[in-house]
Amino acid sequence: MSTPSRQPPHPDVQEVLFSEAEIAARGEGLAAAINTDYAGLEIYFVGILKGAAPFAADLLRRIDRPLRLDFMAVSSYGSGARSSGAVRILKDLEEGIAGRHVLVVEDIVDSGLTLHYLRENLLARRPASLRICAFLDKPDRRKVDVPVDYVGFRIPDHFVVGYGLDYAERYRNLPYIGVLKPEVYQG
Ligand code: IMP
Ligand code: MG
Description:
The chain is of the alpha/beta class and 187 residues long. It has one domain: Rossmann fold, CATH 3.40.50. It is 22% helix and 29% strand. Strand 2, helix 2 and strand 3 form a beta-alpha-beta unit. The longest helix is centred in the N-terminal third of the chain and has 18 residues. The radius of gyration is 17 Å and the shape is globular. It binds inosinic acid and magnesium ion.
């Protein structure tokens, strides 16, 4: 097969914010910082399903520290574009994290409600340390303060999809981050 040509974005996407190449370059930078900060430590790497799955998979392959992989699934949104504020654990960790160096890997921080809840919940389990890495951050939408140690990109208040992020469970497979056309979620 020949090299695939660059496809136009999905018709529901109004603008590509970060291309595959930009995502990869930023991932390298994040991994470099994590590798430095965790020198001599084993990382308990916690991907937050489902949105962070592609980011987590890319990131962990760039980490050259000893690492254990686990996942949590939480639900803070229905299928809509705005948070309800209620957080539920749908899938918990497989192992205890007491005394471990936990790195939570999330797709996006929006209101902060999900990560605030997760952080409190995980801190109660007495890890040796707890840090948060989010691929995207929408600071304008923050309702509750949550310390995010590693941020891929800060973005304005747009609803974005792709690279794991969905709207109503769609678009997670797009290889770039795109701004969803408002008419798609405004009906
Ligand atoms: P928070 O609790 O409001 O910070 O929301 C975090 C979760 O909301 C993320 O893990 C995403 O699943 C979802 N979310 C927030 N903003 C967006 C977006 O722009 N596109 C897709 N999902 C989003
Ligand atoms: Mg979601």
